[in-house]
Amino acid sequence: MHNTERFFRHLRRQPAVLVTVASVRGSVPREVGAWMGVFATDMIGTVGGGRLEFEALQEARQHLSGFAGAGKLAPSLDGEPGQLRRFALGPTLGQCCGGEVHLRFECVTAADVARLQERLKQLRHPVALFGGGHVGRALVRVLADLPLALHWIDSRDEVFPPDQPAHVRCEHSDPVQGAVPTLQSGSRVLIMSFSHAEDLDVVAACLTRQRQQGDLPFIGLIGSQTKWATFRHRLQDRGFSAQELAQVTCPIGLPGIVGKQPEVIAVAVAAQILQTLAAEPP
């Protein structure tokens, strides 16, 4: 279960203090919008760890202990709910980052869930995963807490495990490449089906879409260099140019990570996806 889902599930049962990074200056551990929910005996999310988070946790628990009698915190001077507090990471907390963080402390209850859901909704980059095998399942587990919206596709019935997170959408598509035209624009595509024939058809469908729309920033194919050499010849026979074929990454996964266990491959692929996100212009 993702942090936001866990937070709202807890909040429907008990009050919390929501701590949010409101503004930053200089070198700091987390970005504006990062948050943690502090409950009486639990904490979900993070505003950066270390002494900053320790101090924030203590202050949040103080607010929480007085919540029943005093009610919600008065609005800050900026008119937003809750109270702001400035943390100078170097002089005050002894953290080497040296920057400055303003944290907002806000007492919240089940009545605030609807208001907070939109505010805490994370920007999720679309990823299309073709294949529900061992590596596919391991990859879904690795990607579960990353800022990604996963479209998981397979041609086989009953291949998807139950109880997927809300941001994982499963689709049975036969033929499997039939799902390619409906992918969300901007999707990173990961191809690792149970069949080399299906893999080839999905790659061809992706390249056809690229020729028409050019809106798939990453196409990754699981397999060896030998597999890709074979695929390249077959795709050339289907009329794809060398320039078009250069859009496919195979073998998939961040170079330098060795091991063929599904979990190791999943970590390497997830790291590669994050690398492509970091390369995007702001």
Runs with pLDDT <50, length 5+?
none
Helix content: 25-40%
Q: What count of domains describes the coordinates?
A: 2
Q: Tell me, rounded to a whole number, the average pLDDT.
A: 87
CATH topology of the largest domain: the name is Rossmann fold
Q: What percent strand?
A: 15-25%
Characterize the largest beta sheet: strand count, sense, and whether it forms a barrel. 6 strands, parallel
Widest sheet, order of strands: 8-7-6-9-10-11
Number of DSSP strand runs: 11
Helix and strand sequence: HEEEHHEEHEHEEEHEHHEH
Task: Report on this structure.
By secondary structure, the protein is an alpha/beta fold. It folds into two domains: 118 residues, no CATH class; 154 residues, Rossmann fold (3-Layer(aba) Sandwich). Helix content is 35%, strand content 21%. The protein has nine helices and eleven strands. A six-stranded parallel sheet has the order 8-7-6-9-10-11, sandwiched between helices. Strands 3-2-1-5-4 form a five-stranded antiparallel sheet. Helix 5 crosses helix 9. It is elongated, with a radius of gyration of 23 Å. The model has no long low-confidence stretch (mean pLDDT 87).
